[in-house]
Amino acid sequence: MENNLLFRPGHTACAGCGQATAARMVIEAAGASTIVVNNTGCLEVFSTKYPDTAWGVPWIHSLFENSAAVASGVEAALRYLGKKDTVNVIAQGGDGGTADIGLQALSGMLERGHDILYVCYDNEAYMNTGVQRSSLTPFATNTTTSPVGKDSSGNIRLKKPLPEIANAHGIPYVATSSAAFPQDIQRKVKKAVSIKGPKYIQIHVPCPLGWHHQPQLAQQVGKLAVETGLYPLIEYENGNLISVRKIQPKPVEEYLKTQGRFKHLLNNPEQVKIIQEIANNNIERYGLSAEGGTSSGGKLEMAAA
Amino acid sequence: MFGPLIVKPLKSKGAKTGSWRIQVKPKFLNKNCIGCKICILNCPEGCIQAKEKNVMTVDYIYCKGCGLCAVMCPKADVIMVEEKSEGEKK
Questions:
Q1: Each residue of B47-70: b (16+ CB within 10 Å) or e?
Q2: Cβ contacts (< 8 Å) between A52 and chain B: which residues?
Q3: N or C: which end of chain A has fewer CB within 10 A?
Q4: How many domains, in total, are found in chain B?
Protein backbone atom coordinates (compact mmCIF):
# COMPACT_ATOMS: atom_id res chain seq x y z
CA MET A 1 0.00 0.00 0.00
CA GLU A 2 2.84 2.38 0.81
CA ASN A 3 4.03 2.72 -2.75
CA ASN A 4 1.03 4.62 -4.10
CA LEU A 5 -0.08 6.67 -1.16
CA LEU A 6 0.60 9.95 -2.92
CA PHE A 7 -1.68 9.48 -5.92
CA ARG A 8 -4.63 7.23 -5.15
CA PRO A 9 -6.85 5.15 -7.42
CA GLY A 10 -10.44 6.28 -7.79
CA HIS A 11 -9.64 9.33 -9.90
CA THR A 12 -11.74 9.70 -13.03
CA ALA A 13 -9.17 9.63 -15.83
CA CYS A 14 -10.12 7.78 -19.02
CA ALA A 15 -9.10 4.14 -19.25
CA GLY A 16 -5.53 3.99 -20.56
CA CYS A 17 -4.71 7.63 -19.72
CA GLY A 18 -0.98 8.26 -20.00
CA GLN A 19 -1.22 11.41 -17.92
CA ALA A 20 -2.41 9.48 -14.86
CA THR A 21 0.63 7.19 -15.09
CA ALA A 22 2.99 10.13 -15.55
CA ALA A 23 1.50 12.16 -12.68
CA ARG A 24 1.84 9.18 -10.34
CA MET A 25 5.46 8.66 -11.36
CA VAL A 26 6.26 12.35 -10.83
CA ILE A 27 4.76 12.61 -7.35
CA GLU A 28 6.20 9.26 -6.22
CA ALA A 29 9.66 10.32 -7.34
CA ALA A 30 9.36 13.76 -5.71
CA GLY A 31 8.24 12.24 -2.40
CA ALA A 32 5.73 13.18 0.28
CA SER A 33 7.43 16.44 1.22
CA THR A 34 6.05 18.27 -1.80
CA ILE A 35 3.55 21.03 -2.56
CA VAL A 36 1.82 20.67 -5.92
CA VAL A 37 0.36 23.63 -7.84
CA ASN A 38 -1.83 22.68 -10.79
CA ASN A 39 -3.01 24.48 -13.89
CA THR A 40 -6.52 23.87 -15.12
CA GLY A 41 -6.58 20.87 -17.38
CA CYS A 42 -7.37 17.18 -17.57
CA LEU A 43 -5.16 16.39 -14.59
CA GLU A 44 -6.80 18.98 -12.36
CA VAL A 45 -10.30 17.87 -13.35
CA PHE A 46 -9.91 14.12 -13.04
CA SER A 47 -7.80 14.02 -9.89
CA THR A 48 -9.81 16.48 -7.79
CA LYS A 49 -13.47 15.89 -8.53
CA TYR A 50 -15.22 17.66 -5.65
CA PRO A 51 -15.38 16.50 -2.86
CA ASP A 52 -12.69 13.94 -3.61
CA THR A 53 -8.98 14.28 -4.22
CA ALA A 54 -6.46 11.71 -5.36
CA TRP A 55 -3.49 13.62 -3.98
CA GLY A 56 -1.74 12.74 -0.76
CA VAL A 57 0.20 16.01 -0.71
CA PRO A 58 -0.88 19.66 -0.35
CA TRP A 59 -2.37 20.66 -3.69
CA ILE A 60 -3.50 24.07 -5.01
CA HIS A 61 -5.35 25.07 -8.13
CA SER A 62 -5.98 28.69 -9.02
CA LEU A 63 -6.51 29.48 -12.72
CA PHE A 64 -5.69 28.10 -16.15
CA GLU A 65 -2.59 30.20 -16.72
CA ASN A 66 -0.93 30.85 -13.41
CA SER A 67 0.36 27.68 -11.76
CA ALA A 68 3.91 28.97 -12.28
CA ALA A 69 3.01 32.31 -10.68
CA VAL A 70 1.20 30.69 -7.72
CA ALA A 71 4.10 28.28 -7.23
CA SER A 72 6.47 31.28 -7.20
CA GLY A 73 4.48 32.69 -4.30
CA VAL A 74 4.48 29.36 -2.48
CA GLU A 75 8.22 29.08 -2.92
CA ALA A 76 8.81 32.65 -1.72
CA ALA A 77 6.70 32.00 1.37
CA LEU A 78 8.60 28.79 2.14
CA ARG A 79 11.89 30.63 1.72
CA TYR A 80 10.71 33.34 4.14
CA LEU A 81 9.75 30.70 6.68
CA GLY A 82 13.11 28.99 6.23
CA LYS A 83 11.52 25.71 5.11
CA LYS A 84 12.49 25.67 1.46
CA ASP A 85 15.31 23.18 1.90
CA THR A 86 12.95 20.50 3.16
CA VAL A 87 9.98 21.05 0.84
CA ASN A 88 9.83 20.62 -2.95
CA VAL A 89 7.48 22.77 -5.00
CA ILE A 90 6.08 21.31 -8.21
CA ALA A 91 4.05 23.37 -10.66
CA GLN A 92 2.33 21.35 -13.34
CA GLY A 93 -0.03 21.75 -16.23
CA GLY A 94 -1.05 20.46 -19.60
CA ASP A 95 0.39 21.56 -22.90
CA GLY A 96 -2.19 24.29 -23.46
CA GLY A 97 -1.80 25.69 -19.96
CA THR A 98 1.98 25.69 -20.39
CA ALA A 99 2.73 26.61 -23.99
CA ASP A 100 -0.21 28.87 -24.87
CA ILE A 101 -2.05 30.32 -21.90
CA GLY A 102 0.57 30.01 -19.18
CA LEU A 103 3.69 30.83 -21.17
CA GLN A 104 4.26 34.25 -19.63
CA ALA A 105 3.82 32.92 -16.09
CA LEU A 106 6.23 30.09 -16.89
CA SER A 107 8.76 32.46 -18.45
CA GLY A 108 8.54 34.78 -15.45
CA MET A 109 9.09 31.90 -13.05
CA LEU A 110 12.14 30.69 -14.98
CA GLU A 111 13.56 34.20 -15.26
CA ARG A 112 13.16 35.04 -11.55
CA GLY A 113 15.05 31.90 -10.62
CA HIS A 114 12.56 30.32 -8.21
CA ASP A 115 13.46 26.88 -6.88
CA ILE A 116 10.54 25.12 -8.57
CA LEU A 117 10.13 22.07 -10.80
CA TYR A 118 7.70 22.79 -13.63
CA VAL A 119 6.20 19.65 -15.21
CA CYS A 120 4.35 19.95 -18.52
CA TYR A 121 2.15 16.96 -19.47
CA ASP A 122 2.16 17.18 -23.24
CA ASN A 123 -0.82 15.35 -24.78
CA GLU A 124 -0.61 17.56 -27.84
CA ALA A 125 -4.02 19.31 -27.76
CA TYR A 126 -6.65 20.69 -25.37
CA MET A 127 -8.06 17.25 -24.54
CA ASN A 128 -10.15 18.36 -21.58
CA THR A 129 -12.37 20.69 -23.61
CA GLY A 130 -12.68 18.46 -26.67
CA VAL A 131 -9.44 18.17 -28.65
CA GLN A 132 -8.75 21.72 -29.84
CA ARG A 133 -5.29 22.39 -31.26
CA SER A 134 -2.65 23.97 -29.05
CA SER A 135 0.78 25.25 -30.01
CA LEU A 136 2.28 21.88 -29.02
CA THR A 137 0.07 20.00 -31.49
CA PRO A 138 2.29 18.37 -34.13
CA PHE A 139 2.12 19.04 -37.85
CA ALA A 140 -0.84 17.62 -39.83
CA THR A 141 -2.83 16.49 -36.78
CA ASN A 142 -6.59 16.19 -37.07
CA THR A 143 -8.21 18.15 -34.23
CA THR A 144 -11.60 19.83 -33.92
CA THR A 145 -10.12 23.26 -34.67
CA SER A 146 -7.81 22.01 -37.42
CA PRO A 147 -10.16 19.54 -39.11
CA VAL A 148 -9.29 17.43 -42.09
CA GLY A 149 -11.17 18.13 -45.32
CA LYS A 150 -10.87 18.57 -49.04
CA ASP A 151 -8.40 21.45 -48.81
CA SER A 152 -6.95 20.80 -45.38
CA SER A 153 -4.81 18.05 -43.92
CA GLY A 154 -4.95 19.07 -40.30
CA ASN A 155 -2.77 21.37 -38.25
CA ILE A 156 -0.67 23.62 -40.50
CA ARG A 157 1.92 24.69 -37.93
CA LEU A 158 4.86 22.83 -36.44
CA LYS A 159 5.18 21.93 -32.76
CA LYS A 160 6.52 24.73 -30.59
CA PRO A 161 10.04 23.90 -29.32
CA LEU A 162 9.18 24.53 -25.68
CA PRO A 163 12.17 22.69 -24.12
CA GLU A 164 14.43 24.92 -26.22
CA ILE A 165 12.52 28.02 -25.11
CA ALA A 166 12.87 26.98 -21.46
CA ASN A 167 16.55 26.21 -22.01
CA ALA A 168 17.09 29.67 -23.52
CA HIS A 169 16.29 31.16 -20.09
CA GLY A 170 19.60 29.74 -18.88
CA ILE A 171 18.05 27.52 -16.22
CA PRO A 172 19.95 24.63 -14.59
CA TYR A 173 17.85 21.69 -15.80
CA VAL A 174 15.58 21.01 -18.78
CA ALA A 175 14.46 17.53 -19.83
CA THR A 176 11.85 15.74 -21.91
CA SER A 177 10.42 12.36 -21.01
CA SER A 178 7.57 10.07 -21.98
CA ALA A 179 4.85 8.25 -20.07
CA ALA A 180 5.88 5.11 -21.95
CA PHE A 181 9.16 5.15 -19.97
CA PRO A 182 8.08 5.39 -16.30
CA GLN A 183 11.58 4.73 -14.93
CA ASP A 184 12.91 7.53 -17.12
CA ILE A 185 10.37 9.94 -15.60
CA GLN A 186 11.32 8.90 -12.08
CA ARG A 187 15.04 9.26 -12.73
CA LYS A 188 14.65 12.72 -14.24
CA VAL A 189 12.30 14.00 -11.52
CA LYS A 190 14.62 12.71 -8.78
CA LYS A 191 17.52 14.45 -10.46
CA ALA A 192 15.53 17.65 -10.97
CA VAL A 193 14.38 17.99 -7.35
CA SER A 194 17.98 17.58 -6.17
CA ILE A 195 19.03 20.66 -8.20
CA LYS A 196 18.47 24.16 -6.88
CA GLY A 197 16.81 26.67 -9.18
CA PRO A 198 14.06 26.52 -11.82
CA LYS A 199 13.69 23.20 -13.62
CA TYR A 200 11.50 22.25 -16.56
CA ILE A 201 10.41 18.74 -17.58
CA GLN A 202 8.09 18.02 -20.50
CA ILE A 203 6.42 14.60 -20.50
CA HIS A 204 4.78 13.14 -23.61
CA VAL A 205 1.53 11.49 -22.46
CA PRO A 206 -0.60 9.33 -24.78
CA CYS A 207 -4.31 10.21 -24.83
CA PRO A 208 -6.58 7.43 -26.18
CA LEU A 209 -9.52 9.84 -26.48
CA GLY A 210 -7.83 12.58 -28.48
CA TRP A 211 -5.35 10.50 -30.44
CA HIS A 212 -7.98 7.88 -31.39
CA HIS A 213 -6.20 4.68 -30.48
CA GLN A 214 -7.14 1.70 -28.33
CA PRO A 215 -6.53 2.34 -24.61
CA GLN A 216 -4.40 -0.77 -24.18
CA LEU A 217 -1.96 0.50 -26.84
CA ALA A 218 -1.15 3.77 -25.04
CA GLN A 219 2.36 2.82 -23.97
CA GLN A 220 3.25 1.32 -27.36
CA VAL A 221 2.15 4.51 -29.13
CA GLY A 222 4.23 6.58 -26.71
CA LYS A 223 7.25 4.32 -27.32
CA LEU A 224 6.88 4.64 -31.09
CA ALA A 225 6.90 8.45 -30.83
CA VAL A 226 10.31 8.20 -29.18
CA GLU A 227 11.64 5.44 -31.44
CA THR A 228 10.75 7.28 -34.65
CA GLY A 229 12.55 10.42 -33.50
CA LEU A 230 9.42 12.57 -33.33
CA TYR A 231 9.71 12.98 -29.57
CA PRO A 232 13.40 12.98 -28.60
CA LEU A 233 14.15 12.28 -24.94
CA ILE A 234 16.84 14.81 -24.08
CA GLU A 235 18.42 16.38 -21.01
CA TYR A 236 19.98 19.82 -20.73
CA GLU A 237 22.05 20.84 -17.73
CA ASN A 238 23.13 24.49 -17.50
CA GLY A 239 22.40 24.92 -21.19
CA ASN A 240 24.44 21.93 -22.36
CA LEU A 241 22.93 18.83 -23.87
CA ILE A 242 24.20 16.15 -21.48
CA SER A 243 22.33 13.03 -22.57
CA VAL A 244 19.86 11.74 -25.13
CA ARG A 245 18.04 8.43 -25.42
CA LYS A 246 19.68 6.62 -28.35
CA ILE A 247 17.29 4.96 -30.82
CA GLN A 248 17.35 2.75 -33.89
CA PRO A 249 15.21 5.11 -36.00
CA LYS A 250 11.99 3.62 -37.35
CA PRO A 251 9.99 5.12 -40.24
CA VAL A 252 7.35 7.60 -39.01
CA GLU A 253 4.55 5.67 -40.74
CA GLU A 254 4.74 3.10 -37.95
CA TYR A 255 3.82 5.83 -35.45
CA LEU A 256 1.25 7.56 -37.66
CA LYS A 257 -0.73 4.45 -38.57
CA THR A 258 -1.42 3.59 -34.91
CA GLN A 259 -3.58 6.68 -34.38
CA GLY A 260 -6.86 7.92 -35.82
CA ARG A 261 -5.72 11.54 -35.69
CA PHE A 262 -3.22 10.82 -38.49
CA LYS A 263 -5.51 8.50 -40.50
CA HIS A 264 -5.83 11.00 -43.35
CA LEU A 265 -2.06 10.85 -43.93
CA LEU A 266 -1.98 7.22 -44.97
CA ASN A 267 -2.82 8.08 -48.59
CA ASN A 268 -0.94 11.37 -48.59
CA PRO A 269 2.78 10.56 -49.00
CA GLU A 270 3.83 14.20 -49.38
CA GLN A 271 2.70 15.08 -45.86
CA VAL A 272 4.32 11.94 -44.47
CA LYS A 273 7.55 13.01 -46.15
CA ILE A 274 7.44 16.34 -44.31
CA ILE A 275 6.89 14.53 -40.99
CA GLN A 276 9.78 12.18 -41.77
CA GLU A 277 11.90 15.27 -42.38
CA ILE A 278 10.94 16.64 -38.95
CA ALA A 279 12.01 13.32 -37.39
CA ASN A 280 15.27 13.31 -39.38
CA ASN A 281 16.01 16.85 -38.23
CA ASN A 282 15.50 15.79 -34.60
CA ILE A 283 17.74 12.75 -35.06
CA GLU A 284 20.48 14.85 -36.63
CA ARG A 285 20.17 17.75 -34.22
CA TYR A 286 20.30 15.76 -31.00
CA GLY A 287 22.37 12.83 -32.29
CA LEU A 288 19.68 10.30 -31.42
CA SER A 289 20.86 7.55 -33.72
CA ALA A 290 22.58 4.67 -31.94
CA GLU A 291 26.03 3.47 -33.11
CA GLY A 292 25.85 1.89 -36.52
CA GLY A 293 22.91 4.08 -37.52
CA THR A 294 22.82 6.16 -40.67
CA SER A 295 22.75 9.60 -39.07
CA SER A 296 25.96 11.57 -38.72
CA GLY A 297 25.07 13.34 -35.47
CA GLY A 298 27.18 11.50 -32.94
CA LYS A 299 28.87 14.27 -31.03
CA LEU A 300 27.40 13.21 -27.69
CA GLU A 301 28.30 9.55 -27.74
CA MET A 302 30.16 9.72 -24.47
CA ALA A 303 27.28 11.43 -22.72
CA ALA A 304 24.60 8.86 -23.54
CA ALA A 305 22.97 7.72 -20.34
CA MET B 1 -24.50 25.15 3.97
CA PHE B 2 -21.90 24.39 1.34
CA GLY B 3 -19.90 21.78 3.23
CA PRO B 4 -16.14 21.92 3.60
CA LEU B 5 -14.29 23.72 0.85
CA ILE B 6 -11.01 22.02 1.68
CA VAL B 7 -11.28 18.28 1.30
CA LYS B 8 -9.10 15.82 3.13
CA PRO B 9 -6.28 14.21 1.16
CA LEU B 10 -6.61 10.75 -0.40
CA LYS B 11 -10.39 10.88 -0.58
CA SER B 12 -10.60 9.74 -4.18
CA LYS B 13 -11.43 6.19 -3.09
CA GLY B 14 -15.07 7.27 -3.05
CA ALA B 15 -15.38 7.01 -6.83
CA LYS B 16 -15.87 3.35 -7.66
CA THR B 17 -14.49 3.53 -11.17
CA GLY B 18 -14.57 -0.25 -11.58
CA SER B 19 -18.12 0.16 -12.89
CA TRP B 20 -16.61 1.76 -16.02
CA ARG B 21 -15.33 -1.59 -17.27
CA ILE B 22 -16.99 -2.94 -20.37
CA GLN B 23 -16.78 -6.60 -21.37
CA VAL B 24 -13.30 -7.48 -20.13
CA LYS B 25 -11.22 -7.35 -16.97
CA PRO B 26 -7.60 -8.35 -16.31
CA LYS B 27 -6.78 -11.65 -14.67
CA PHE B 28 -3.40 -12.15 -13.04
CA LEU B 29 -2.37 -15.77 -13.49
CA ASN B 30 0.63 -15.43 -11.12
CA LYS B 31 2.33 -18.39 -12.79
CA ASN B 32 5.25 -16.93 -14.73
CA CYS B 33 5.52 -13.63 -12.83
CA ILE B 34 9.11 -12.47 -12.48
CA GLY B 35 8.33 -9.47 -10.29
CA CYS B 36 9.47 -6.88 -12.84
CA LYS B 37 6.72 -4.48 -11.67
CA ILE B 38 6.04 -3.20 -15.20
CA CYS B 39 2.30 -3.62 -14.59
CA ILE B 40 2.50 -1.64 -11.33
CA LEU B 41 4.46 1.16 -12.97
CA ASN B 42 2.29 1.42 -16.07
CA CYS B 43 -1.20 1.06 -14.59
CA PRO B 44 -2.87 4.47 -15.09
CA GLU B 45 -5.11 3.78 -12.13
CA GLY B 46 -2.37 2.61 -9.77
CA CYS B 47 -4.60 -0.19 -8.51
CA ILE B 48 -2.17 -3.10 -9.01
CA GLN B 49 -0.29 -4.16 -5.92
CA ALA B 50 2.34 -6.71 -5.09
CA LYS B 51 0.92 -9.01 -2.43
CA GLU B 52 4.12 -11.01 -2.27
CA LYS B 53 7.23 -10.95 -4.39
CA ASN B 54 5.78 -12.62 -7.48
CA VAL B 55 2.08 -12.38 -6.68
CA MET B 56 0.27 -9.34 -8.08
CA THR B 57 -3.31 -8.43 -7.27
CA VAL B 58 -5.61 -5.96 -8.94
CA ASP B 59 -8.29 -3.96 -7.16
CA TYR B 60 -11.42 -4.53 -9.25
CA ILE B 61 -13.26 -1.76 -7.42
CA TYR B 62 -11.08 0.78 -9.25
CA CYS B 63 -9.74 -1.07 -12.34
CA LYS B 64 -11.16 0.52 -15.50
CA GLY B 65 -10.22 -2.44 -17.70
CA CYS B 66 -7.97 -0.54 -20.12
CA GLY B 67 -5.87 -3.65 -20.71
CA LEU B 68 -2.45 -1.97 -20.51
CA CYS B 69 -1.15 -4.55 -18.03
CA ALA B 70 -2.05 -7.43 -20.36
CA VAL B 71 -0.27 -5.77 -23.30
CA MET B 72 2.82 -4.72 -21.34
CA CYS B 73 3.46 -7.92 -19.36
CA PRO B 74 6.70 -9.44 -20.76
CA LYS B 75 5.75 -12.94 -19.59
CA ALA B 76 2.12 -12.83 -20.79
CA ASP B 77 1.09 -13.54 -17.22
CA VAL B 78 -1.90 -11.20 -17.42
CA ILE B 79 -4.88 -12.01 -19.63
CA MET B 80 -8.13 -10.17 -20.26
CA VAL B 81 -11.20 -12.26 -19.43
CA GLU B 82 -14.91 -11.64 -19.90
CA GLU B 83 -16.83 -10.04 -17.09
CA LYS B 84 -18.86 -12.84 -15.53
CA SER B 85 -22.07 -10.99 -14.94
CA GLU B 86 -23.44 -7.49 -14.72
CA GLY B 87 -23.90 -7.83 -10.96
CA GLU B 88 -20.29 -8.66 -10.23
CA LYS B 89 -19.03 -5.34 -11.56
CA LYS B 90 -20.39 -3.28 -8.75
A1: bbbeeeeeebebbbbbbbbbbbbb
A2: 7, 11-15
A3: N
A4: 1
